[in-house]
Design a protein that fits this description.
Layout (H helix, E strand, L loop, with lengths): L1 H31 L4 E8 L6 E3 L23 E4 L2 E9 L9 H5 L12 H29 L2 E3 L9 E3 L1 H5 L7 E5 L2 E2 L7 H5 L5 E6 L3 E6 L4 H7 L5 E3 L3 E6 L4 H4 L6 E5 L2 E2 L3 H10 L5 E7 L2 E7 L9 E3 L2 H4 L3 E3 L3 H22 L6 H6 L3 H5 L8 H20 L6 H14 L5 H32 L1
Parallel strand pairs: 1-3
Antiparallel strand pairs: 1-4, 2-3, 5-18, 6-11, 7-8, 7-9, 9-10, 12-13, 12-17, 13-14, 13-15, 15-16
Helix pairs in contact: 1-3, 1-13, 3-10, 3-13, 3-14, 10-13
Length: 457
């Protein structure tokens, strides 16, 4: 129970930060363009609010040159809702989740969203996404500055690397341990070492099968091949060591933390990716796994799930191999933070294609899955890492062209800018309702998956 509360607390604090910053972006841009914001709420408040504050209006109001009353921060009701599913700002003259038809039926006012130029409305809708991405970059900059990077020297990665097709084509084999670059030991903490490794004529020394030293020369034009095709390079191979048991079949099989899986059926699986490949062969079928537990070697009977999973979290390679700290000053932390943020965005976007598969649809999770990302014991490093990643996800998901999301409003505004025709208010109302219904169904499905996994897996 204590673990549940620690994870839940981290989730609520992270969501509070992300939602507040997102809505703050909309609020500040709306106010910058003189648009009245009627409500600014952290979390939703159906039926009642935990807290709300309405500033007193000054005795002397300000007016524009046409005699119209100017919008002010005092027009806004600021509040805290009780339902932590998001937050909102109610912008006057905008068709949003409030579905305020009464206001939209009145004559347009100069301080309303609908009377502003299209480019201003576009920026107001993009502001939440922009602020979330900026927040993720700012957090990554702070992580780099305060904690630095935890790096593993290639020579300490005893299982070597998994190489891309580009590297396979020039002579690298999965499991090769990177040792030298142009005759000198490779230092992972050295800026630009990867750039040097892909230059024409670079000589890279590797240890193969723990016995054979090889030198591989980068051919001329290799960099162009990376640019033109798949620009991935290599990543750490690591053994399949259990960190945490999450669900069945691992529970039923008797798998335990720190067990190392070395065989699946008759397949030897020295690395985690090899184990994943082998499990897929036995998806939904009973097989055996051989594990090293301390000094003992034992065999367990398992039936992987339909998508080839056992239900455990593996130790990350940075938890297995000896790590070193690469430090950054405030100036070098800025480009590092940008690099981390853009890398996470790229990885997340590329992984979305899996959602449209049968197995990917089953893996979609709601608040339970998100909360389970946080560690069982409080760690500020992990908390900020996960919060930054969630900020990247929130930014990307909100820009998707789905009505009721920021991306839907952006899509309709871009249509207006391109065609010079504004979509009708009735169309926008129906699109908003349809988008909200779709998001509600997605929310139910995602959290239903969480409940199913909790009860049956």
């Amino acid at each position: 129970m204590e673990t549940f509360f620690i994870k839940a607390l981290q989730l609520i604090i992270a969501l509070s930060i992300l939602v507040f910053i997102h809505e703050l972006g909309h609020y500040l841009f709306a106010r910058f363009f003189g648009i009245k914001v009627e409500k600014f709420y952290l979390f939703f408040n159906p039926w009642f609010s935990l807290y709300k504050w309405k500033p007193k209006k000054p005795k002397h109001r300000k007016y524009d040159k046409n005699g119209n009353e100017k919008a002010s921060w005092r027009d806004t009701v600021y509040g805290l809702g009780w339902l932590p599913l998001g937050g909102y700002v109610k912008i006057a003259g905008m068709i949003d989740e409030s579905m305020d038809k009464e206001q939209m039926a009145q004559d347009p006012q100069p301080w309303e969203f609908r009377t502003k130029p299209a480019y201003q409305r576009l920026l107001v809708m993009l502001a939440g996404v922009i602020f979330n991405f900026i927040l993720s970059i700012a957090i990554y900059i702070g992580i780099a500055f305060y904690w630095g990077d935890r790096v593993v020297q290639y020579s300490q990665a005893t299982e070597g690397m998994n190489y891309s097709e580009n590297f396979h084509d020039i002579g690298f084999e999965d499991g090769d341990i990177l040792l030298t670059l142009n005759g000198k030991p490779i230092d992972v903490k050295s800026n630009g070492h990867i750039w040097e490794m892909i230059q024409d004529g670079a000589k890279i020394g590797v240890l193969r099968n723990n016995t054979e030293h090889k030198t591989i020369t980068i051919p001329n034009g290799f960099l162009n091949e990376l640019i033109d095709g798949n620009n991935s390079l290599f990543d750490y191979r690591f053994p399949s060591i259990v960190s945490e048991i999450v669900s069945n079949p691992a529970k039923d099989a008797g798998l335990m933390p720190n067990d190392r899986i070395v065989k699946v059926g008759s397949d030897t699986t020295a690395a985690y990716n090899e184990m994943q490949t082998s499990l897929l062969k036995y998806a939904g079928k009973q097989t055996t796994i051989t594990v090293m537990r301390g000094d003992s070697i034992i065999t367990l009977h398992v039936t992987p799930t339909a998508d080839g999973k056992l239900g455990f979290k593996p130790l990350h390679w940075s938890q297995i191999y000896p790590t070193e700290i690469k430090e950054y000053n405030i100036f070098s932390a800025i480009p590092r933070g940008w690099e981390m943020g853009t890398q996470q965005l790229g990885m997340y976007v590329s992984s979305l294609k899996l959602v449209f598969t049968k197995e990917g649809a089953k893996s979609i999770g709601g608040f339970g899955a998100i909360g389970n990302m946080f560690p069982e014991k409080w760690s500020w490093y992990s908390f900020w890492q996960i919060t930054a990643f969630l900020s990247v996800i929130l930014a990307f998901m909100n820009i998707l062209p789905i009505p009721a999301l920021d991306g839907g409003h952006v899509l309709f505004t871009l249509y207006e800018i391109i065609t010079r025709k504004k979509p009708g208010e009735k169309f926008l109302e129906y699109a908003q309702i349809g988008g909200m219904a779709f998001l509600l169904l997605l929310l139910v499905y995602a959290n239903g998956n969480d409940l199913y996994r909790l009860l049956f897996q």
